[in-house]
Amino acid sequence: MVVSFRTDFPNHDSTKQSTWHRPRSFTFAANEFRDQHQVVVVGAGLVGLLLAIVLRQAGYQVTVFDKDIELKEIGAGIILPPNACRVLDQAGVLERIRSHAVRPQEWVSHSYKSGATLGSMNLDPHMDKLYGMPFLVIHRPQLRRILFNAAEASGARMRLGAVIDPACIDFANGVINTASTEEPRTAKCHYKDQVEDNVAADLLVAADGQQSETRAYLSGEKNRPAPTGKMVNRILVGVERMRELGLEDLIERPRIHVWLGPGSLAVGYLLQGVFNFVLTCSSENEKSVFLGPKAVDKEELFATFRNWDPRVRSLVENGHGFLKWLLFDNSGNDPHSWVRFIDDHKLALALTGDAAHAIGPYISAWANLLNSGSGAAMGFESAMVLGSLLGQAKCRSDVGQALNIYGSLRRPRTNIVGRVTQKMAEEWMIPDGPLQAKRDRLFTEEHPPLPGYPNTLQDPFFQKWLYAFDGADEARRSWTLSGQDRLSQTRDAEDGCKLVHGIGASDKASRL
Questions:
Q1: How would you class 211 by CB atoms within 10 Å of its CB: exposed for 0-12, middle for 13-18, buried for 19 or more?
Q2: Which of 73, 241, 272, 348 is most solvent-facing, going by the fewest CB within 10 Å?
């Protein structure tokens, strides 16, 4: 049985649709082709949900599949820099996010031992004045819920508890086979009102994260995540408990605090009612490799940070909600292309978010800490670029062109962010010694910062390149360019950033 989705969405709650607003500055002309084009998004994470909203703005019929039977999110905080907020604003959800978010006023870098301030960066209202968008932090589950509700209200259909195996897809005829995650597993997907085993679609977009089965299928190689030797530990401390501990200076003025230590890093910031604290350190004591979160040995973690700023030790001693994740390098099966469009195949294919940006160990977990949310922001940018390009399509061949432009635009930028973030991590976690002392002098003495400054976010070239990016505008301009002009545009952007940061062929140039 092949199920073709109806365009009137009989199960859609019309009361939710009235709360979803399409920004006046971000609209697509109505088009009959897109109104009949069926898009399946695999993954109801942050990027998949954002993409669903943008595709509905463009007029596509969208269904989102996710293997989880219920919406859930493990994690606490997520940073939303101006480039991420710009996408969320264009998707019509930023105002709802603002009401649940905190606006940190500063980014403060600390010495790991004394806690002394090495340097600071103005965030609020500085970022809003420079880039027209705020710098926010928010509880990750809250963000996902806002995006989920907005995607549903826009008319996207949600299908939870479903698995899509790329090996079982009939690309020639555009038929996707689904399986239920309920036990025993069957070859059907169960919903409230119907049972579907095959779904008709014209485009499948995989936004199912670093362990994406679709990426493995496209590359022809299995997912083999390689441990990096690092892990992330997440701790929560309630606001009242922070006051009892005499840590008011960390919460009275909303700020992002970063402690730079040898081989380790600590990042903390205030969410609504709780202080989110994340510690990165060596995973050499882990006896086995594990995927996903795991309980933390509190005594072992305290021993790792026993020589750090007393505030760091106090947070570890008095926190709750301890969880840890290993950091992996997922770049081993990076496909040659993020898209596949074959003329005589009905179903086209694309990757986005972490499913596409598998360029190293830092792009998602570390980029969110080191480059102010760039892991999530890169995913949001990619979703906006892809959705905006597809919003120009008026026929099937236009879809193929949109997919090709998407890959050529996004790959250079995400590669640069990944490499700069990795370089930044190396400089921030320098062992005690002369290089660390030189780095700290640059932090404290160089004002205003020059290109190559240790906090890349304050690098005058890189900050503008990162935060001023407008994916919707970039997509529209690229759509009107010829192939040669478009290639020159992407090369100029990549070469300019490499020039400033010394990340050319050797990747060794550094002011340290």
A1: middle
A2: 272
